[in-house]
């Protein structure tokens, strides 16, 4: 038998996971600044199989506008460079001996607006996920009332608490979107 506390805790922890996933997605949205997380989606051919870039090279920042990629094996440089160039990130890597430099080109105003729109879209998706979790929690509470395990008053109180948790998570998502938009629009 599930209790009101279990339902609330489950909903809150799932909402926290939704926000963590949302933060991860936001990190991949390009701003004018370099961020090693940008290259998380790049896969490189390594002995016949496609592996994430982070498994064949060390990805770090050289400066605010340049990512450095240091392959762990000598022969991988050209393959890594090709994979970055062919990714849909619009980046142009340059080899310097064993080190590959990936400069971040400045973004046009139009591209900035596209990225801000993408950040808002990701925020909306995260809010939908949080609201779905609220709905699941409320349905679980209704089942408890139907099974006569709790009273309707207890259900109303619990739903109000679930709503408070939901509001807190949605406010956090809004704050993350606002700060990401500010970061994107900063020249």
UniProtKB/TrEMBL annotation:
Protein location: Cytoplasm
InterPro entries, per the entry: Ribosome_recyc_fac, Ribosome_recyc_fac_dom, RRF_sf
Residue ranges of every copy of the Ribosome recycling factor domain listed in the record: 22-185
Keyword entries, A-Z: Cytoplasm, Protein biosynthesis
SUPFAM superfamilies from the UniProt entry: Ribosome recycling factor, RRF
Domain of life of the source: Bacteria
Gene Ontology biological-process annotations: cytoplasmic translational termination
Matching Pfam families: RRF
UniProt KW Transmembrane keyword: no
One Gene Ontology term of the molecular function aspect: ribosomal large subunit binding
NCBIfam families named in the record: frr (TIGR00496)
HAMAP family according to UniProt: RRF (MF_00040)
Reported function: Responsible for the release of ribosomes from messenger RNA at the termination of protein biosynthesis. May increase the efficiency of translation by recycling ribosomes from one round of translation to another.
Protein name: Ribosome-recycling factor
Highest classification ranks of the organism: Bacteria, Pseudomonadati, Pseudomonadota, Betaproteobacteria, Burkholderiales
């Amino acid at each position: 038998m599930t209790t009101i506390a279990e339902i609330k805790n489950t909903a809150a922890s799932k909402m926290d996971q939704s926000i963590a996933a949302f933060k991860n997605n936001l990190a991949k949205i390009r701003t004018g600044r370099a961020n090693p997380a940008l290259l998380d989606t790049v896969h490189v051919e390594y002995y016949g199989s496609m592996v994430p870039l982070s498994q064949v090279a060390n990805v770090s920042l050289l400066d605010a506008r340049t990512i450095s990629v240091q392959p762990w094996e000598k022969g991988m440089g050209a393959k890594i460079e090709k994979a970055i160039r062919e990714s849909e990130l619009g980046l142009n890597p340059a080899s310097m001996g064993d080190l590959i430099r990936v400069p971040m080109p400045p973004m046009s105003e139009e591209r900035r607006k596209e990225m801000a729109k993408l950040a808002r879209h990701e925020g909306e998706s995260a809010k939908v996920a949080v609201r779905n979790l609220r709905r699941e929690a409320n349905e679980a509470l209704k089942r408890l009332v139907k099974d006569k395990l709790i009273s309707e008053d207890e259900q109303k109180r619990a739903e109000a608490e679930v709503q408070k948790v939901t509001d807190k998570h949605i406010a956090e998502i809004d704050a993350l979107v606002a700060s990401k938009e500010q970061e994107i629009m900063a020249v």
